[in-house]
Amino acid sequence: DAKTTQPPSMDCAEGRAANLPCNHSTISGNEYVYWYRQIHSQGPQYIIHGLKNNETNEMASLIITEDRKSSTLILPHATLRDTAVYYCIVRVAFLRNTPLVFGKGTRLSVIA
Amino acid sequence: DVKVTQSSRYLVKRTGEKVFLECVQDMDHENMFWYRQDPGLGLRLIYFSYDVKMKEKGDIPEGYSVSREKKERFSLILESASTNQTSMYLCASSPEGQGRAEQYFGPGTRLTVT
Fold first, then answer.
1. What are the tens digits of pLDDT across the range A40-77?
2. Which of B23, B103, B109, B110 should one mutate to test binding to chain A, selecting the residue with the greatest count of A CBs within 10 A?
3. Residues 6 or more apart from B40 whose CB is under 8 A from it?
4. Do A94 and B98 touch (CB under 8 A)?
5. What is the Cα–Cα distance from A100 to A90, expressed in whole angstroms?
6. CA A33 → CA A74, B29, B89, B112, distances in Å?
7. What is the pLDDT of residues B52-98, one digit of tens each?
8. Interface touch A103/B33, C-beta < 8 Å
């Protein structure tokens, strides 16, 4: 799996958009970008994934640069419940025996 | 919504006991996984299964075994619990198919072995 680089921590005011960056400069053509988050004392939660096009779902938007070397997860209206560690992972999608590898992620603190 | 449930949130066992951790998913997913999570070490894969009665070792299978008799249920067994198996155990499931490798996690079981 290609490695990812994320800032260790970020703050965001409640109600504002949270933009979480991720660098993955060695990503391969068949690797997807996945985002997960983990709220304290809970299991990781899948958020969104994409290959090269921007993606949006009910939780977030994923913007992938044209060269695919970086991406940004956007939480459009952050709430206190979005305080968590956010993980950016790149991996081949259909590869049964490749586990998810969680790095250190970004600790997002949403402030009232 | 995908739902992955684990039998206990907190468990305390004594050294040498046999421990069963149960995981059930309700979305007909083919793949199921057991991880443990420890501070500073991240998530480490213990075992996974991509079909009923199929299992494959992950990165740290020693001291553990698994059972998958039904598609929706994946059990992790600690044959003889030891203090170094004190950890948070996380079960996950994922659907099969191209571009569908997202994993859905249960709430976790915090196991303490004394």
1. 888 999 999 999 989 999 999 999 999 999 999 999 99
2. B103
3. none
4. yes
5. 9
6. 14, 21, 25, 35
7. 988 999 889 999 999 999 999 999 999 999 999 999 999 999 887 65
8. no
